[in-house]
Prior knowledge:
disordered N terminus
Amino acid sequence: MKAPVALIAAAFSAAICAAQPGAAAAGGGVPPLPQRLSDTGLFVPGTTTARAEHIAFSPQYPLWSDGTSKRRWISLPPGTTIDAARPDAWEFPVGTKLWKEFAFGRAIETRFIERLADGSWRFAAYVWNEAGTDAELAPLRGAVVAAASAPGGQYKVPGRFDCLACHEGGTTPVLGFSALQLSPDRDPLAPHADAASAQFSDLKTLAARGLIRNLPQRLLENPPRIAAASPVTRAALGYLHGNCGHCHNDSGALASLDLALLQQAAEPGASAERTLKSLLGHSSRFRAHDGKATQRVVSGSDEASVLAVRMKTTNPMARMPPLGVKVADDEGIALIERWIRTATPLTKEKQP
Protein backbone atom coordinates (compact mmCIF):
# COMPACT_ATOMS: atom_id res chain seq x y z
CA MET A 1 0.00 0.00 0.00
CA LYS A 2 2.96 2.33 0.43
CA ALA A 3 3.79 4.52 -2.55
CA PRO A 4 7.44 5.13 -3.38
CA VAL A 5 8.62 8.26 -1.57
CA ALA A 6 9.66 9.85 -4.85
CA LEU A 7 6.19 9.38 -6.31
CA ILE A 8 4.46 10.99 -3.35
CA ALA A 9 6.98 13.83 -3.25
CA ALA A 10 6.61 14.52 -6.97
CA ALA A 11 2.83 14.54 -6.79
CA PHE A 12 2.82 16.79 -3.75
CA SER A 13 5.38 19.15 -5.28
CA ALA A 14 3.31 19.43 -8.46
CA ALA A 15 0.20 20.21 -6.43
CA ILE A 16 2.02 22.94 -4.51
CA CYS A 17 3.35 24.57 -7.67
CA ALA A 18 -0.13 24.53 -9.18
CA ALA A 19 -1.57 26.47 -6.28
CA GLN A 20 1.04 29.01 -5.27
CA PRO A 21 -0.67 31.98 -3.60
CA GLY A 22 -0.77 34.99 -5.85
CA ALA A 23 -0.83 32.99 -9.10
CA ALA A 24 -4.56 33.38 -9.55
CA ALA A 25 -4.52 36.82 -7.99
CA ALA A 26 -1.96 38.08 -10.48
CA GLY A 27 -4.04 37.01 -13.43
CA GLY A 28 -7.58 37.55 -12.20
CA GLY A 29 -7.48 39.95 -9.28
CA VAL A 30 -8.58 37.41 -6.68
CA PRO A 31 -9.04 39.13 -3.32
CA PRO A 32 -6.89 37.87 -0.44
CA LEU A 33 -8.32 35.38 1.99
CA PRO A 34 -10.19 37.00 4.88
CA GLN A 35 -8.15 37.23 8.05
CA ARG A 36 -11.10 36.15 10.21
CA LEU A 37 -13.54 33.29 9.80
CA SER A 38 -16.41 35.68 10.49
CA ASP A 39 -15.49 37.50 7.27
CA THR A 40 -15.89 34.40 5.08
CA GLY A 41 -19.69 34.65 5.26
CA LEU A 42 -20.28 31.65 7.52
CA PHE A 43 -21.96 33.42 10.41
CA VAL A 44 -24.91 35.63 11.06
CA PRO A 45 -23.17 39.03 11.60
CA GLY A 46 -22.14 39.59 15.20
CA THR A 47 -22.62 35.92 16.17
CA THR A 48 -21.00 32.51 15.77
CA THR A 49 -24.22 30.99 14.46
CA ALA A 50 -24.11 29.68 10.89
CA ARG A 51 -26.39 31.52 8.48
CA ALA A 52 -29.67 29.74 7.85
CA GLU A 53 -29.18 29.76 4.08
CA HIS A 54 -26.05 27.62 4.35
CA ILE A 55 -26.63 23.90 3.79
CA ALA A 56 -25.63 21.65 6.68
CA PHE A 57 -24.65 18.12 5.68
CA SER A 58 -23.09 14.99 7.10
CA PRO A 59 -21.41 12.31 4.95
CA GLN A 60 -22.37 8.74 5.75
CA TYR A 61 -18.70 7.64 5.63
CA PRO A 62 -16.87 10.40 7.54
CA LEU A 63 -13.12 10.83 7.69
CA TRP A 64 -11.52 9.84 10.99
CA SER A 65 -9.63 12.79 12.49
CA ASP A 66 -8.37 11.66 15.90
CA GLY A 67 -11.83 11.71 17.42
CA THR A 68 -12.74 15.32 16.66
CA SER A 69 -16.41 16.15 16.28
CA LYS A 70 -17.28 18.01 13.09
CA ARG A 71 -19.86 20.27 11.55
CA ARG A 72 -20.06 20.97 7.84
CA TRP A 73 -21.77 23.52 5.60
CA ILE A 74 -21.87 24.37 1.91
CA SER A 75 -23.04 27.63 0.33
CA LEU A 76 -23.99 28.19 -3.30
CA PRO A 77 -24.33 31.65 -4.85
CA PRO A 78 -27.99 32.68 -5.21
CA GLY A 79 -29.62 31.27 -8.33
CA THR A 80 -26.89 28.70 -9.00
CA THR A 81 -27.00 24.91 -8.93
CA ILE A 82 -24.65 21.94 -8.84
CA ASP A 83 -24.40 19.99 -12.08
CA ALA A 84 -24.70 16.34 -11.03
CA ALA A 85 -24.69 14.84 -14.52
CA ARG A 86 -21.53 12.99 -13.52
CA PRO A 87 -22.73 11.43 -10.26
CA ASP A 88 -19.21 10.92 -8.95
CA ALA A 89 -17.69 14.24 -10.03
CA TRP A 90 -20.18 17.01 -9.37
CA GLU A 91 -19.50 20.37 -10.99
CA PHE A 92 -19.84 23.18 -8.47
CA PRO A 93 -20.61 26.75 -9.52
CA VAL A 94 -18.08 29.55 -9.17
CA GLY A 95 -18.50 31.11 -5.75
CA THR A 96 -19.24 27.81 -3.96
CA LYS A 97 -17.96 27.84 -0.38
CA LEU A 98 -17.58 24.98 2.10
CA TRP A 99 -16.67 24.97 5.78
CA LYS A 100 -15.74 22.12 8.11
CA GLU A 101 -15.40 22.74 11.83
CA PHE A 102 -13.23 20.47 14.01
CA ALA A 103 -13.83 20.41 17.76
CA PHE A 104 -12.37 18.80 20.87
CA GLY A 105 -15.04 19.89 23.34
CA ARG A 106 -14.74 23.39 21.85
CA ALA A 107 -14.18 24.49 18.27
CA ILE A 108 -10.47 24.33 17.45
CA GLU A 109 -10.28 24.81 13.70
CA THR A 110 -12.52 25.51 10.73
CA ARG A 111 -11.36 24.68 7.22
CA PHE A 112 -12.58 26.71 4.27
CA ILE A 113 -12.76 25.94 0.54
CA GLU A 114 -13.87 28.38 -2.14
CA ARG A 115 -14.24 28.10 -5.92
CA LEU A 116 -12.78 31.12 -7.68
CA ALA A 117 -13.81 32.92 -10.87
CA ASP A 118 -11.26 31.05 -12.96
CA GLY A 119 -12.65 27.69 -11.81
CA SER A 120 -9.78 26.92 -9.43
CA TRP A 121 -10.22 26.23 -5.74
CA ARG A 122 -8.46 27.78 -2.77
CA PHE A 123 -8.08 26.31 0.68
CA ALA A 124 -7.56 27.83 4.10
CA ALA A 125 -7.73 26.97 7.79
CA TYR A 126 -8.88 29.20 10.63
CA VAL A 127 -7.83 28.74 14.26
CA TRP A 128 -10.42 29.56 16.94
CA ASN A 129 -9.52 31.73 19.90
CA GLU A 130 -10.02 30.24 23.36
CA ALA A 131 -13.01 32.49 24.00
CA GLY A 132 -14.78 30.93 21.02
CA THR A 133 -15.67 34.33 19.54
CA ASP A 134 -13.90 34.00 16.17
CA ALA A 135 -11.10 32.24 14.34
CA GLU A 136 -8.00 33.71 12.71
CA LEU A 137 -6.46 32.68 9.39
CA ALA A 138 -3.76 30.09 10.04
CA PRO A 139 -0.23 30.69 8.75
CA LEU A 140 0.53 29.42 5.26
CA ARG A 141 2.44 26.44 6.66
CA GLY A 142 -0.11 25.64 9.35
CA ALA A 143 0.20 25.77 13.12
CA VAL A 144 0.20 23.71 16.29
CA VAL A 145 -2.22 24.88 18.97
CA ALA A 146 -2.88 23.79 22.53
CA ALA A 147 -6.01 21.69 22.99
CA ALA A 148 -6.43 19.83 26.26
CA SER A 149 -8.57 17.03 24.80
CA ALA A 150 -6.38 16.45 21.75
CA PRO A 151 -3.79 13.66 21.68
CA GLY A 152 -0.79 14.90 23.64
CA GLY A 153 -2.59 18.16 24.37
CA GLN A 154 -1.78 19.55 20.94
CA TYR A 155 -3.69 19.92 17.70
CA LYS A 156 -2.01 20.36 14.33
CA VAL A 157 -3.67 22.74 11.90
CA PRO A 158 -2.68 21.91 8.31
CA GLY A 159 -0.96 24.40 6.03
CA ARG A 160 -2.77 25.57 2.93
CA PHE A 161 -0.67 23.27 0.74
CA ASP A 162 -1.27 20.27 3.00
CA CYS A 163 -4.92 20.41 1.95
CA LEU A 164 -3.95 19.63 -1.63
CA ALA A 165 -2.49 16.25 -0.71
CA CYS A 166 -6.03 14.93 -0.21
CA HIS A 167 -8.27 17.33 -2.09
CA GLU A 168 -6.45 17.05 -5.40
CA GLY A 169 -6.12 13.28 -5.37
CA GLY A 170 -9.51 12.28 -6.76
CA THR A 171 -12.11 13.18 -9.35
CA THR A 172 -13.21 16.35 -7.52
CA PRO A 173 -11.61 18.54 -4.83
CA VAL A 174 -14.84 18.50 -2.80
CA LEU A 175 -14.82 15.49 -0.47
CA GLY A 176 -17.79 14.22 1.50
CA PHE A 177 -20.44 16.06 -0.53
CA SER A 178 -21.38 13.62 -3.27
CA ALA A 179 -24.18 11.33 -4.44
CA LEU A 180 -22.88 8.36 -2.46
CA GLN A 181 -21.98 10.26 0.68
CA LEU A 182 -25.36 12.04 0.76
CA SER A 183 -27.48 9.04 -0.15
CA PRO A 184 -30.69 8.71 1.92
CA ASP A 185 -29.90 4.98 2.03
CA ARG A 186 -27.38 5.46 4.85
CA ASP A 187 -25.18 2.63 6.07
CA PRO A 188 -26.12 1.71 9.66
CA LEU A 189 -22.71 0.13 10.28
CA ALA A 190 -20.62 3.12 9.14
CA PRO A 191 -18.22 4.11 11.96
CA HIS A 192 -18.56 7.61 13.46
CA ALA A 193 -21.44 8.64 11.20
CA ASP A 194 -24.09 11.06 12.42
CA ALA A 195 -27.60 9.71 12.60
CA ALA A 196 -29.90 10.77 9.79
CA SER A 197 -31.54 14.05 10.72
CA ALA A 198 -33.74 16.70 9.17
CA GLN A 199 -31.00 19.24 9.90
CA PHE A 200 -28.74 17.56 7.31
CA SER A 201 -29.49 17.82 3.60
CA ASP A 202 -29.30 14.65 1.55
CA LEU A 203 -29.67 13.79 -2.12
CA LYS A 204 -33.45 13.96 -2.12
CA THR A 205 -33.70 17.26 -0.28
CA LEU A 206 -31.09 18.85 -2.54
CA ALA A 207 -33.03 17.73 -5.61
CA ALA A 208 -36.35 18.88 -4.12
CA ARG A 209 -34.90 22.33 -3.47
CA GLY A 210 -33.57 22.55 -7.02
CA LEU A 211 -29.96 22.80 -5.85
CA ILE A 212 -28.72 19.94 -8.03
CA ARG A 213 -29.56 19.31 -11.67
CA ASN A 214 -29.00 16.56 -14.21
CA LEU A 215 -28.70 13.85 -11.57
CA PRO A 216 -29.77 10.57 -13.21
CA GLN A 217 -33.34 9.86 -12.18
CA ARG A 218 -32.47 6.29 -11.22
CA LEU A 219 -30.34 7.62 -8.34
CA LEU A 220 -33.34 9.45 -6.93
CA GLU A 221 -35.64 6.48 -7.35
CA ASN A 222 -33.04 4.04 -6.01
CA PRO A 223 -30.62 5.97 -3.78
CA PRO A 224 -26.98 4.99 -4.33
CA ARG A 225 -25.32 2.47 -2.07
CA ILE A 226 -22.14 0.44 -2.18
CA ALA A 227 -22.56 -2.91 -3.91
CA ALA A 228 -21.71 -5.58 -1.38
CA ALA A 229 -22.56 -9.17 -0.58
CA SER A 230 -23.01 -8.44 3.13
CA PRO A 231 -23.58 -5.51 5.50
CA VAL A 232 -20.05 -5.84 6.85
CA THR A 233 -18.54 -5.66 3.37
CA ARG A 234 -20.65 -2.62 2.55
CA ALA A 235 -19.46 -0.81 5.67
CA ALA A 236 -15.83 -1.84 5.18
CA LEU A 237 -15.72 -0.64 1.58
CA GLY A 238 -17.49 2.55 2.67
CA TYR A 239 -14.93 3.17 5.39
CA LEU A 240 -12.07 2.73 2.91
CA HIS A 241 -13.88 5.00 0.47
CA GLY A 242 -14.25 7.81 2.99
CA ASN A 243 -10.82 7.52 4.58
CA CYS A 244 -8.55 6.32 1.77
CA GLY A 245 -10.29 6.63 -1.61
CA HIS A 246 -9.46 10.29 -2.19
CA CYS A 247 -5.79 9.27 -2.62
CA HIS A 248 -6.02 5.61 -3.59
CA ASN A 249 -8.01 5.55 -6.82
CA ASP A 250 -7.58 5.08 -10.55
CA SER A 251 -7.36 8.76 -11.52
CA GLY A 252 -5.07 10.48 -9.01
CA ALA A 253 -1.32 10.75 -8.60
CA LEU A 254 -1.13 7.28 -6.98
CA ALA A 255 -3.00 5.48 -9.77
CA SER A 256 0.12 3.49 -10.65
CA LEU A 257 -0.17 1.61 -7.35
CA ASP A 258 -3.22 -0.20 -8.77
CA LEU A 259 -5.08 0.30 -5.49
CA ALA A 260 -8.63 1.53 -6.05
CA LEU A 261 -10.61 2.28 -2.89
CA LEU A 262 -12.97 4.93 -4.26
CA GLN A 263 -16.56 3.74 -4.71
CA GLN A 264 -18.88 5.06 -7.42
CA ALA A 265 -22.57 5.88 -7.31
CA ALA A 266 -22.84 5.57 -11.10
CA GLU A 267 -21.32 2.07 -11.30
CA PRO A 268 -21.45 0.55 -7.81
CA GLY A 269 -20.96 -3.05 -8.89
CA ALA A 270 -17.94 -2.30 -11.07
CA SER A 271 -16.26 -0.08 -8.49
CA ALA A 272 -16.73 -2.57 -5.64
CA GLU A 273 -15.38 -5.36 -7.83
CA ARG A 274 -12.42 -3.16 -8.78
CA THR A 275 -11.67 -2.47 -5.12
CA LEU A 276 -11.74 -6.14 -4.16
CA LYS A 277 -9.57 -7.03 -7.13
CA SER A 278 -6.99 -4.42 -6.11
CA LEU A 279 -6.89 -5.70 -2.51
CA LEU A 280 -7.18 -9.49 -2.65
CA GLY A 281 -4.28 -11.54 -3.94
CA HIS A 282 -2.16 -8.43 -4.36
CA SER A 283 1.38 -8.17 -3.03
CA SER A 284 2.18 -4.96 -1.19
CA ARG A 285 5.26 -2.83 -1.78
CA PHE A 286 5.27 -2.15 1.94
CA ARG A 287 7.17 -4.52 4.16
CA ALA A 288 6.55 -4.70 7.89
CA HIS A 289 9.60 -4.97 10.14
CA ASP A 290 8.77 -8.57 11.01
CA GLY A 291 8.28 -9.39 7.32
CA LYS A 292 5.14 -11.43 8.01
CA ALA A 293 2.54 -9.31 6.20
CA THR A 294 3.26 -9.08 2.49
CA GLN A 295 -0.23 -9.15 0.92
CA ARG A 296 -2.63 -6.20 0.94
CA VAL A 297 -5.45 -8.40 2.21
CA VAL A 298 -5.26 -12.07 3.11
CA SER A 299 -8.79 -13.39 3.35
CA GLY A 300 -9.43 -14.72 6.84
CA SER A 301 -6.30 -13.25 8.47
CA ASP A 302 -6.10 -9.61 9.55
CA GLU A 303 -2.65 -10.26 11.07
CA ALA A 304 -1.29 -11.21 7.64
CA SER A 305 -3.01 -8.31 5.86
CA VAL A 306 -0.93 -5.19 5.25
CA LEU A 307 -4.11 -3.10 5.16
CA ALA A 308 -4.88 -3.87 8.82
CA VAL A 309 -1.24 -3.73 9.91
CA ARG A 310 -0.76 -0.23 8.54
CA MET A 311 -4.00 1.04 10.04
CA LYS A 312 -2.91 -0.17 13.50
CA THR A 313 0.76 0.76 13.60
CA THR A 314 1.98 3.59 15.82
CA ASN A 315 4.94 4.21 13.50
CA PRO A 316 4.15 7.51 11.70
CA MET A 317 6.34 6.45 8.76
CA ALA A 318 4.19 3.37 8.15
CA ARG A 319 0.76 4.43 9.35
CA MET A 320 -2.14 4.83 6.94
CA PRO A 321 -3.55 7.33 6.43
CA PRO A 322 -0.27 9.27 6.67
CA LEU A 323 -1.77 12.74 7.20
CA GLY A 324 -4.06 14.21 9.84
CA VAL A 325 -3.97 11.18 12.14
CA LYS A 326 -2.04 10.55 15.35
CA VAL A 327 -4.41 8.10 17.02
CA ALA A 328 -5.52 4.82 15.50
CA ASP A 329 -9.24 4.55 14.80
CA ASP A 330 -10.18 1.57 16.98
CA GLU A 331 -13.75 1.37 15.67
CA GLY A 332 -12.66 1.57 12.05
CA ILE A 333 -9.91 -0.98 12.58
CA ALA A 334 -12.34 -3.37 14.28
CA LEU A 335 -14.64 -3.14 11.27
CA ILE A 336 -11.86 -3.78 8.74
CA GLU A 337 -10.51 -6.70 10.79
CA ARG A 338 -13.96 -8.23 11.09
CA TRP A 339 -14.42 -7.87 7.34
CA ILE A 340 -11.07 -9.51 6.59
CA ARG A 341 -11.71 -12.37 9.01
CA THR A 342 -15.33 -13.11 8.18
CA ALA A 343 -16.70 -11.41 5.07
CA THR A 344 -14.06 -11.16 2.37
CA PRO A 345 -15.00 -13.09 -0.79
CA LEU A 346 -12.99 -16.17 0.18
CA THR A 347 -14.60 -16.47 3.60
CA LYS A 348 -18.14 -17.16 4.70
CA GLU A 349 -19.57 -14.38 6.84
CA LYS A 350 -20.05 -15.35 10.46
CA GLN A 351 -22.48 -13.76 12.83
CA PRO A 352 -20.97 -11.89 15.80
